[in-house]
Design a protein that fits this description.
Blueprint lengths: L1 H12 L4 E6 L5 E3 L2 E2 L6 H7 L7 E7 L2 E8 L4 H7 L4 H9 L3 E4 L3 H9 L4 E4 L1 H5 L1 H9 L11 E4 H10 L3 H24 L6 H14 L4 E2 L4 E4 L20 E6 L1 E3 L2 E2 L2 E6 L6 H19 L7 H18 L7 H6 L40 E4 L2 E4 L13 E4 L2 E5 L4 E3 L8 H9 L7
Parallel strand pairs: 1-7, 5-6, 7-8
Antiparallel strand pairs: 1-4, 2-3, 4-5, 9-12, 10-11, 11-14, 12-13, 15-18, 16-17, 18-19
Helix pairs in contact: 1-2, 9-10, 9-14, 11-12
Bound molecules: glycine and manganese (II) ion (MN) (2 copies).
The site of glycine has 7 residues, from loops.
Length: about 425
């Protein structure tokens, strides 16, 4: 079982005489008595595959002996009638293949027994500093103070290191997420026209995600028409699509809690204008060059530097900037037009919280099994008086999801239309081919 194997990998990293406490996610209030849809905590899911809220996982490693306990909601017919079915204390043991299962109602009275005898405690810092801190402080006042941990470690560092290298089942889930995402992007290209609003496209994307088997979106979908593309985290999605403008769509489905993260730009009326093409080609060339260079041993900063060079040269070529290339790069004059990074780790979280540097501040080189995005962009705001008129109000980003392989890399989203002629062809397709 994949998640049980993840626990094994985690246990292998834990020193002897240690205990780890990993909370599940909790249901979050939206307002008064309504709640946001529940999404499991990524770390908890990685170690259990379990999707219910308000659970606790406890992993003890004492004298080489490993024991996993889970605390879950107990069965409760009345609560289940109102809130949804629960697995319960009995069944969960087999489902996640752990040693012991208890009611979450018994967590408070049991947790100090689980910690006793351990020198090191791994938990989220919020838990160590929060509800656990009083309990441990109190235990440390008694005669058996020496039996309680004196080393506290945030669990994230250890877990994030494990989560970096994607296993085959994780890659399969990301590929499935991308298959659904591909259909959504192609359908959006087919649907866009000057009679539609940004939310028409967003609703279509969400429909395709849900009916395609995804749990939903991996992050809030961005459908940005025209100058809205120059708002990096645009989620309003409420404006009319105008003839002659581009749509920047950043949308990725989530499959079995694994993300995809794709951006494409396509014309509302189906045809790129000349200035749109010029900008698009600069970003596309940069993006392809970045992907080409990815392989084990290469640094992300190397890929990033090259992208900065190419985008800066592009800005110079179209006369948005007129300084020397050296000056543009040295003084970061490109930054107003390319303000974000070249890409990020991706997995259970769209921005997988894996470190980019080791404990000595040395940058990690790419390794086989890394999954990351490559997403250069150029943003030319309509209100920028300094740039040529023809480019005002155009924002371009092109984003793919890349798996680092033994010899190089695989673009997992290479089937999503990206060349100008491919995108224009998709814009001419019949929407009913997709829904
Ligand atoms: N969709 C978020 C990002 O591209 O990083
Ligand atoms: Mn991204
Ligand atoms: Mn994105």
């Amino acid at each position: 079982m994949n998640f049980q194997k993840n626990r094994e990998r985690f246990f292998n990293e834990m020193p002897d005489q240690s205990v780890a406490i990993i909370p599940s996610g909790n249901v979050k209030q939206r307002s008064n008595d309504t709640y946001y849809p529940f999404r499991q905590d990524s770390n908890f899911y990685y170690l259990t595959g379990f999707l219910e809220d308000s659970a606790m996982l406890v992993m003890q490693k004492v004298d080489g002996h490993k024991k996993t306990t889970i605390f879950v909601h107990p069965k409760d017919p009345l609560k289940e009638m109102w809130e949804g079915r629960r697995v319960g204390v009995e069944k969960i043991r087999d489902i996640i293949a752990c040693d012991e299962s208890l009611s979450i109602d018994d967590y408070d009275t049991n947790i100090m027994d689980k910690i006793k005898g351990c020198q090191t405690l791994y938990a989220p810092t919020a838990l160590i500093k929060g509800s656990l801190s009083d309990k441990i402080e109190k235990a440390k006042e008694g005669k058996s103070a020496h039996l309680y941990p004196d080393t506290f470690k945030d669990i994230n560092a250890l877990l994030f290191a494990l989560r970096r290298k994607k296993q085959p089942f994780e890659i399969a889930f990301i590929k499935q997420a991308l298959e659904i995402t591909q259909k959504a992007h192609h359908a959006a290209m087919a649907k866009a026209n000057p009679s539609k609003y940004e939310y028409d496209i967003m609703a279509l994307v969400e429909y395709i995600f849900k009916t395609g088997g995804a749990s939903g979106d991996a992050y809030t979908t961005i459908v940005a028409g025209g100058n809205n593309a120059n708002i990096l985290h645009y989620t309003d999605n409420g404006h009319k699509l105008l003839d002659g403008e581009l749509i920047l769509m950043d949308a990725g489905s989530e499959y079995k809690l694994y993300a995809s993260d794709i951006t494409r730009c396509f014309p509302v009326n189906g045809k790129f204008s000349t200035p749109q093409k010029e900008l698009y080609e600069i970003v596309l060339k940069t993006q392809k060059a970045a992907i080409e260079r990815i392989k084990p041993g290469v640094l992300r900063s190397y890929i990033s530097d090259q992208a900065i060079q190419m985008l800066s040269q592009g800005l110079k070529d179209i006369k948005v900037l007129d300084q020397s290339l050296d000056e543009i790069i040295e003084k970061e004059l490109y930054k107003p037009y390319y303000p974000h990074g070249i890409g990020h780790w991706m997995g259970l979280d769209v921005h997988d919280p894996v470190a980019y540097k080791d404990a000595h501040d040395k940058e990690f080189a790419f390794e086989e099994g890394d999954v990351l995005t490559i997403e250069p962009g150029l943003y030319l705001d309509a209100g920028d008086e300094t740039i040529p008129e023809i480019y005002k109000g155009i924002g371009i980003r092109i984003e793919d999801n890349i798996l680092v392989t033994k010899e190089g890399c695989e673009n997992l989203s290479s089937d999503i239309a990206k060349e100008i002629h491919e995108v224009e062809d998709r814009c001419q397709m019949d929407l009913y081919d997709y829904i």
